[in-house]
Amino acid sequence: MSDLAERVETWMVGQMPIIQMHGGTSVVREADAEEGVVVVELGGTCSGCGISDLTAQNIKRDLIMDFDEVDEVHVKVPDTGEMGSSTVEGGRGGDLQYSTESSDHF
């Protein structure tokens, strides 16, 4: 995992505890400091949650504000609710499944 990915993971734990508190999960799928791109995937109860789009927008805005090298953030929000069985400490991680049917979701 890259230094940027590790820093974004740490940031997610500190800044977005609401995700875990509500049974959701998040995974940093990509963090490229040279390109300025971060891809975060939400899972668990984020699937179908009425505020998942708001959470995604907050993550996008805040990551760009808090990390000078980040210019573009994509947050994938699952539509299916399917989540892989492997998780890491704090209920984060795992192989998340998501749909690309909605144009609002990556």
Q: Would you tell me the structural class of the helices and strands?
A: alpha+beta
Oligomeric state, counting identical vs distinct chains: single chain
User: What share of residues are in beta strands?
Assistant: 15-25%
Number of helices: 3
Largest sheet: 3 strands, mixed
Query: What is the CATH class name?
Result: Alpha Beta
From the 3D coordinates, which CATH architecture would you assign?
2-Layer Sandwich
Q: How many β-strand runs?
A: 3
- Count of separate structural domains: 1
How far the N terminus sits from the C terminus, by CA atoms, comes to: 22 Å
CATH topology: GMP Synthetase, Chain A, domain 3
**Average of per-residue pLDDT values:** 77
Strand arrangement, major sheet: 1-2-3
H-E string = HHEEHE
CA radius of gyration is 13 Å
CATH-level-4 superfamily name: Fe-S cluster assembly (FSCA)
SSE layout:
Layout: H1 3-15, H2 17-21, E1 24-32, E2 37-44, H3 52-66, E3 72-76
